[in-house]
Amino acid sequence: MKTASLCRIFQGQSHRCKRRGLAHGVSRAFLALIVTVAVSLLPRVTLAFTTKPHMVVVKGTVDLTTVLHNPAMGWVFYDTSDKPFPPSWWQQLKPELRLCHIWYWRDSWARLEPAPGRYAWKYNPEFKAYIRQILAHGYRLAFRVIVSSHNFSHQATPQWVRDLGVKGHIRITHGYDGKARALWTPNYDDPIFQSQFAKFVRAFGQEFDDPKKVDFIDGNGLGWWGEVHHLWLPPAELNQLYNWICSVYSGAFRHVLLVTNVFSEFSQGTGGTDMTIAHDRYGYLFRRDGLGSHWYSHDNIETYDTQMFPASPLFGELCYGNWTPVEQQEEAAKGVKSFQEDLAWATDQAIRSHANTLNFPGDWRLFPKSQVARFNRHGGYRFYPSKIAFPSVIYRGESFEVQSAWKNAGVGELPNATPQWNHKYKLCYALLRDHSRTPLIAGVVRNAHLSRWVGNATFQYSTLLKCLVPVGNYRLAVAIIDSSNHNLASIQLAVANLPHLGLWYLVGGVQVKSLPGRIVGRQVQPRGRHD
Questions:
Q1: What is the reported pLDDT for 119?
Q2: Helices 339-352 & 369-378 angle (0-180, nearest 10)
Q3: Interacting residues of 435 by C-beta distance below 8 A, sequence separation 6+
Q4: DSSP label at 110?
Q5: Which of 75, 108, 189, 366 has a CB 3.0–4.6 Å from the CB of 156, allowing a cystine?
Q6: pLDDT band at 362 (very low <50, low <70, confident <90, very high)
Q7: What are phi and psi of 167, to 5 degrees?
Q8: Backbone phi, then psi, for 188, in 5-degree steps?
């Protein structure tokens, strides 16, 4: 890594330290101390933790209980409102809400653009206040925009779009209030519909293509509930439609993750076109609604496990969340007798399909704590250093080696290789002066491809850092930084026995000494190459 790029790391950290505290920041006074870092990757099977002089080995203990609030993983709160909640509502659900940090909102295009160009995020005061409220409570957003009127109490595609001459069909549907209504839904292959919806998505992306506040976008939304079934198109036209909808969203969202429902009518039950079109061509990840239902079959689980992971973790949704009389009747027909039994089934499917997220419709207070804890233990990615070896004494002007071994205790994956993220999360080391929160040097482990940290494997690296910091006592720290966001330490590790300052994890003490050599006057003549 060049010195200039390291300077950017610390300039970014300093930019944020005023707001986030010195645990994430660095003083500009130390910018001159940035050093060049050389990184090498040893063969995974040959790396051994040595017992060189002054070499310390620290073994990390995995933490399987802490709720990790990391990007693209964890519990997701499910909502369909567009109005702010009263303070009493937040207080009432405070215990449940602290389990999740992603707020998944889905609603109709008609409510987001009731008139041409009158976008809710610009012109609807209640919607704007609702979004501000969610972000103020520390959540990242996720969205699905729906165009089918099935199960809505209103027409999901704006009436002004229909008035342009878009072809469609009217069907009797029942909203959540149970009342029957005759509502219109457009034909998805209609060119006027496609032109207007693409225009909407571009504007949507201009507002929400921001990973600081948006976790992922459900970049499809066609069919009933936006779940990509009941498309009412012949099979020969499905690939063309799939290409169109993926290209629209991928063009508008270049920084936020995109997901689409897997094993849908587009994939014809096999998942083949999900990989070749959505994933390979447009960088999509995969979502599945209806976990805990017969619609997600054993064959689907096997296909996902063998053919689609680790290309993508699963973003999951529980099928039933309110356990209404209708839901009880449907589940009883499959032999499921209780909500607890159904939730256990859904959790099984999520874990076996390498789910990163799981969101529930309905009341969180209905969910058994045992199943909530079970997904928290296994779902998503849980990175921790199983061992880190480093010298307790290093010499100014010389390189020193840090060896590390990493594991993922979760079933999921950090989707770092998507085109939207483009490997922005990086493993990084720093030295912190004793009694200080300020990192003095940093080195990115270039060959640590975090999206490959899956399964039961151990991922081992050897990193060389050159020390040009002043003589003194330091602490070696490690973090996963976001290179697109001022290089902030951004990923919470699942390690129980390492103290941390913010998201910098402290490995152990290091003493920096002057290189022994011949004293000339007041100067020390070091052995080896000069600074």
A1: 98
A2: 0
A3: none
A4: H
A5: 108
A6: low
A7: -80, 150
A8: -70, -15
Q: What tokens appear for 284 in the block?
A: 């999509």
Within 447-493, strands assigned E span: 459-466, 472-482, 488-489
60 in helix, strand or coil? coil
Question: Which whole number is the average pLDDT over 240-256?
Answer: 98
- Single out the residue of 483, 479, 413 nearest to residue 450, CA to CA: 413
What angle (nearest 5°) sits at the alpha carbon of residue 214, between those of residues 293 and 384? 75
Tokens for 480? 């996963």
Which is it for strands 500-501 and 459-466: parallel, antiparallel or unpaired?
Answer: unpaired
Higher pLDDT, 367 or 306: 306
Phi, psi dihedral angles at 36 (to 5 degrees) = -75, 140
Task: Please give the DSSP secondary-structure letter assigned to residue 318.
Answer: E
Nearest by Cα to 401 from 8, 41, 16, 33:
41
Flag whether pLDDT at 231 surpasses 70: yes
Residue 517: band (very low, low, confident or very high) from pLDDT cuts 50, 70, 90: low
4 burial (CB, 10 Å; 0-12 / 13-18 / 19+) is exposed
- Please, are residues 320 and 292 in contact by the beta-carbon 8 Å criterion? yes
* Sign of the dihedral defined by the CA atoms of residues 433, 438, 443, 446, in that order: positive
In the three-class reduction of DSSP (H, G, I as helix; E, B as strand; rest coil), residue 367 is classed as coil
pLDDT in tens, 420-450: 999 999 999 999 987 777 777 678 998 999 9
Output the CA torsion sign for 179, 183, 187, 193. negative
| Omega before 310 within 30 of 0, i.e. cis | yes
Q: Are 435 and 23 in contact (CB under 8 A)?
A: no
* 267-289 pLDDT, tens digit each: 876 778 999 999 999 999 999 99
- Residues 113 and 157: beta-carbon distance below 8 Å: no
Enter the tokens of residue 105. 């909102």
Q: Read off the amino acid at residue 153.
A: S
User: Phi/psi of residue 504, each to 5°?
Assistant: -90, 125
Tokens (6 digits) for 214: 């948006």
Q: Report d(CA 93, CA 137) in Å as an integer.
A: 13
> Shortest CA distance to 25 belongs to which of 13, 9, 11?
13
Distance CA 501, CA 517 (A): 36
Round to whole Å and give the CA distance between 43 and 212: 36
Residue type, 316: G
- Distance from C-alpha of 20 to C-alpha of 12, rounded to nearest angstrom: 12
Residue that the structure tokens 């008139």 belong to = 115
Q: Report the alpha-carbon distance of residue 103 to residue 141 in Å, rounded.
A: 5
* pTM attached to this predicted model: 0.86
Helices (H), 213-368: 238-252, 272-273, 280-282, 298-303, 325-332, 339-352
pLDDT digits (tens, 9 = 90+) for 67-105: 999 999 999 988 877 777 888 888 877 777 788 899 999
The encoded tokens of residue 511 equal 């003493």
